[in-house]
């Protein structure tokens, strides 16, 4: 029988507030509100690959069904960042308010 418990602790940015696992199950993004970035986690190795700077204070993250794009809401500036998950870069900022 498998033992339940913590299998890894991964250091990310400052004040992580949310996590979203891509539908492909190969990676996840963590929103770091105080460092204004999103950490990319490799789900196979349980390690942080890199941080992606956002246009504001990231909060919520959602992926498209094909895992190709992530949409990140940014508090305080009324924008949503669109991240291309192949390039691991913000490709567009959408004003929403």
What are the SSEs and their pairings?
Layout lengths: L15 E6 L5 E6 L4 E6 L4 E7 L3 E7 L5 E7 L3 E6 L4 E7 L2
Antiparallel strand pairs: 1-2, 2-3, 3-4, 5-6, 6-7, 7-8
Polypeptide structure, described:
With 97 residues, the chain is an all-beta fold. It is built from no helices and eight strands. It is globular. The model has no long low-confidence stretch (mean pLDDT 95).
> pLDDT average, as an integer?
95
Structural class: mainly beta
Number of DSSP strand runs: 8
**Radius of gyration, whole Å:** 14 Å
Shape assignment: globular
Report the major sheet.
4 strands, antiparallel
End-to-end distance:
51 Å
- Summed up, the helix count is 0
Low-pLDDT ranges: none
* Helix share, percent: under 10%
Strand order of the largest sheet: 1-2-3-4
The SSE string, one letter per element, is EEEEEEEE
- Quaternary form: single chain
Beta strand %: over 45%
Q: Notable features of this structure?
A:
mainly beta; four-stranded antiparallel beta sheet
Compact summary:
This protein has 97 residues and is mainly β.
């Amino acid at each position: 029988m498998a033992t339940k418990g913590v299998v890894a602790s991964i250091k990310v940015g400052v004040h992580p507030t949310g996590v979203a696992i891509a539908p492909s199950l190969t990676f996840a993004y963590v929103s770091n509100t105080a460092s204004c970035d999103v950490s990319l986690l490799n789900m196979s190795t349980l390690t942080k690959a890199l941080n992606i700077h956002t246009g504001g204070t990231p909060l919520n993250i959602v992926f498209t069904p094909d895992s190709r794009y992530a949409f990140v809401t940014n508090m305080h500036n009324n924008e949503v960042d669109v991240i291309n998950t192949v390039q691991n870069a913000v490709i567009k900022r959408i004003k929403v308010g």
